[in-house]
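Before a colleague's protein record goes any further, I have to sign it off. Alongside the sequence sits a line of tokens, each denoting a local backbone shape. I want your independent view on whether this chain really folds as the tokens say. Where you disagree with what is written, explain briefly why. This is what I was given:
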Amino acid sequence: MKRGYILNFPQLKIGHMIPKVPIMQGGMGVGISLSKLASAVANAGGIGIISGTGISVEDMRFHIRQAKARIKNAGYIGVNVLFAMNDFAEKMKAAIEEKVDFIISGAGISRDMYSWGKQAGIPVISIVSSAKLARISERLGAAAVVVEGFEAGGHLGTDRPMFAILPEVVEAVSIPVIAAGGILTGDDIAKAIAMGASGVQMGTRFVASEECDAPFAFKQKYVDAQKEDLVLVKTTVGLNGRAIKNNFTRLISGPDKLKIAKCHDCLKNCSYRFCTLDSLVTSVNGDVENGLVFAGARVGEIKEILPVKQIINNLTLEYHEAMKDRSLKQPLSL
């Protein structure tokens, strides 16, 4: 028999969702992934996510409706709501009322969110960083889990690489497992799927897209970044976050508190050393030197801002080549 290779992506199925490509776009706040980016990813065959972090309930409802209106064919839109935020329950209930395709949550686990999702017939997905958390999520009713490793941008729940955690989680649960953190190429997708993942979640690559809701200065910061420009900062959430070095990261690198103009009372637990929300709003308003610019560990490999459709097309071609190479090394057996 001739050697062959698999061209098509495996089919990802989460509840009623069966996207053309098993690629989920990360839910990045504040104001990075809203209706424009989420709908572009959905239209390109992936799964789009609107971040509910740092925006009002009314704004979140607006972006859900805008994204739905922009979807040309069948496409899937979900909302990321963080358990660590005080408005978690309000945002989750609003997302259910807007009939999103799914809800994804991290920074903690709420028993209620799974029952709310189940009552509404809406899949709830958990972001986890260990097999233990994955098992708990499945037991409580999660439709899938996103395994996020140390390579991710923003707040980090582990210091372990994603590819070290992934096989443990795949072994621990029977629901779909989505690999996240450091996924940048089609070869990364092929590797994750070969290790048992049902799909991947990508944030950093989609920030440097034409349709991303962030301002051009934010996207250009990604393109200009080098590996040595990344730094881990301790945010007021109590977790480390990976960001691109700038004037703001230098200010918060010491023990002193920064003056807070106004407390938004947004977090259930906060160190009040500075305002994480304000710092993210500052950068998304275009001042990328005096606010936080979160990014993944491989941001230095991104060299240009591309349309979402081209990014997904590139990933598809790279995946095909990776699978071809793997198949040529391992002949198919009868």
Q: What stands out?
A: The chain has two domains: 23-213+301-329, 216-299. The domain at 23-213+301-329 is CATH 3.20.20.70 (TIM Barrel). The CA atoms of residues 32 and 213 lie 5 Å apart.
